[in-house]
Structure of Tail sheath protein C-terminal domain-containing protein:
Amino acid sequence: MRIYETPGVHYERADASGGGIAALRTDIAGFVGLTRRGPPGIAVPVESARQFEAWFGEPIDNGYLAYSARAFFENGGRRMWAVRVASDAASTAGLTLEDAAGPAWRIDASSPGVWGNALALRVTEQRRAQTRAIVDAVDLARVHVADSAGFAAASLVECRAGALVETARVAAVEAASHTLVLGAPLALLPANAALRVETITYALEVFDGGRLVALHDGLSLIPEAGRYGPLVLKQPWQTPDTRRPDENGSRAPQADLALDYFRVARNRGAVAPPVVVIRELRSQPRRDALRPLVSVGGAAPAAPMPLRGGADGLAALVADDFIGAVAPPGTDTESAAAMRRGLACLEAVDEIALVAVPDIHIQPRPPHGTLPPPECVVDRCIPVSPPAASPLPPPVGDRPPRFPLADIYRVQAAMVGHCEKKRDRLALLDAPFDACAKLSYSVNELRAWRSRFETKFAALYAPWLAVVDPLRSRGARALTRAIPPSGHVAGQCAAIDLRAGVHVAPANVALQWVQDTTLAFDEERHGVLNTLGLNVVRALPGRGVRVLGARALSSDSDWRFINVRRLMSMIEKAIDVSIQWAVFEPNDWRTRAKLTLVLSSFLRELWAHGALVGSSADEAYFVRCDETNNPPAARDRGELLIEVGVAATVPFEFIVLRIGRDASGFAVSGEGFAATEGA
């Protein structure tokens, strides 16, 4: 016990948790796919459909990820991580602003893609403060002004005396003596010269498709200024030290900076990037001889300048762009960042419990901008009013390839391998589109596809789902669009986990934001597919569209149901995270008793919530950590063995009603049958 000597109030830490174990979240999903914009090769946490659009844009013709994200949140999901897939051919649109000495700023779209070609910028000078002044008679770096209001340190000013004009940086403002201290003596203006001094900043207007979407004013050319352009308009994970190249002309890789940013911000949310970002092109900005931008065109408003050079690079996509790779130890930082893309970006995110890659099944279609608009029939009885200004059509990029079954299998096999390696997540596999398009041969195609997998860390779903297409109002589009079911399934899993628990099978709940299925399986075909372990989505009269299956792709009866696998993964991970404190503790009966107590308390809580089956706690689980399984020889090696056994609850798949006659009338009895007795 600590002995206090100084009178007063002293605080001591009293942790009442006692090292207990808490159940972990299992509702968080990770998605990989194609989007309109967004940082490629970086896992971004998203907690709403609007936040997803802020990062990745609205739905596109040649991508399913935006549809899957909306389906996830519409069905009860609360948090997901999204990774944008892009090829090496993707490029970022931008333009360069110059001063009298050459290139000064590079303004780029915040992420690669043809979407940046729809952006246009208008940069105008702002001269918000001006006053009369006189150059000091002795020190040409001091200017005496009539009024110092509006002037601040680290601001760019223009000093004009007749035809002589010189720009300078304000190093300090002496308000008491109404004096501006410049960063360097004036070279063109003599002592005692009468001047007109004006501040110079810039306003940046950003237009998307002809509509004003952002306005940034008061941007400064001076790095020390609080409104320095490259500091104000930068990626959220970009630090002041990385806003321009260092002396060797190198920068820290963007992917590594973003990875660190999202690791820190994952619990408090991530700030979406601005529409455009600014980079300083001068390795050593001339702090004492800065010149105004000459490519702006003076203080008068000019026409917006379009950004050029953006490309999606979708035609160059390959399966490896969806898979990526984890760099081996010893790989340099830039090479590791280049290898990390697609599914590999989810390796570093520990909280993910569900994984889906819907866009490997992409079915390319012509962009809505290339379709003829519907015929407009004018009613002559209605007064004609001036039409409202409509935004310019979005630029049309290239189309992705239609991946063959071999590439689809490679990506889904990588998903399974990823989940088996992490052991804390489940792969949600979408059946190929062709297998869900024609009922005549769909069962054979689905049976063949299911036979490719044997794992307890994945589940396969069919058919696809028809949803209301948000792009229907932008061209001659159908009202609905078929998308893979993984987004809806992930949202349903998340909602059930949050409402009841991970031990409840994610099935037999009406799906939201869905109109129909691409195929209508009958009872016979459904029975064949369910026996194979394929989860069928069906539209039931009066009950909506529901997932009627909760099986994993495993022939082992102990791991037949996905809720059993996910419950065991949660238990394993929760125990692993929560008992790390025991490493290097004394290997004696006290430590073993503490571990037995916390593990038993955790499992008893799960049993009380129905996650474990048994009429008593002794039937539901056991924890063994004593001298029987920790002999002296093991303790001498520094080992501690804990044996934990649980009886996970399994769902009913079949409920049988038996109706018959007895001596006095009819009798009805019911029995429920599960496919396995325990796990």
